[in-house]
Amino acid sequence: MKTLKVLSALLCYPQPEIQxxxxxxxxxxxxxxxxxxxxxxxxxxxxxQMRRTDVMDLQESYIGLFDRGRALSLHxxxxxxxxxxxxxxxxxxxxETYRRHGFELSARELPDYLPLFLEYLAQxxxxxxxxxxxxxxxxxxxxxxxxxxxxxxxHVVFDALATLVDEPxxxxxxxxxxxxxGPDQTVVNMDQIWEEEAVTFLAxxxxxxxxxPLPGVAQPVQWVPPLDATRQSARSL
Length: 237
Prior knowledge:
This protein is mainly alpha-helical and 237 residues long. The protein has one domain. The protein is built from 13 helices and two strands, in the order H-H-H-H-H-H-H-E-H-H-H-H-H-H-E. The longest helix is centred in the middle third of the chain and has 24 residues, at 126-149.
C-alpha cells in the first residue's frame, strides 16, 4: 500500500531527501486514493508546510516532539511495556515476523519504531497490513490524541491511519486520557531517568533514528530485500 509508505516517510526524522520527495508522496496518495477527501486535504496541508519549512527547523520540531519524553515516543512497545523485559521479547517476536516474510533490517532502529512498522505493512497484502494496523491502533490512537492536544500538525498522519481501519472501541477513553494528562514526567525528570535506564536492544544496527542520517539514502527506513527478486523494492512508491 503506497499510502502506508507515504505515512511512514512523513513520520521519519526529516531529511533533505524526504523533503525532496514530498511531491512524489502527494502523487502516490492521489493515485491510490484510499483516504477520505478531508483527510487527504489535511495531509496536503502538512506536506505543504513541510515543503516551505527549512529542514533544520523540521528536525528541531521533530526532536522536540518525539524524542523528548515517552508520551509521544514512536516506539510502540514503549507505551505497552515501558522498559520491562516484556518489551525485549515483543521486539524479538516482531523482528522474527519481519524475517519470516523475507525482510532483514538494514537500519539501526528498534523494530517497534512506528515508521519502520508502517513500511513493513506497506509491503504486505492489504488485508494483512490493515489487520496488523488494527492491532496497533490503541497505541497509535493515543499518540495521535496526544499530538492533537499539543496542537501538533503531525496528528493528521495518525488521523489518516485511523481512517484506514476502525477506531479502537476505547477511543473515547483514549481521547479523555490525552485531554486530562499532566506534564510528561519523563520530560520533567529526563536527566534522572536517562541515567537510570538505557535501551540497548539491537543497538548495533544502522537506522532511521534522530541524528543518524544515512548519506545518499533517499528513504531512511530501508530493508534488505529477500532473495526472491520478484518482490517489490521497499524504496519505490
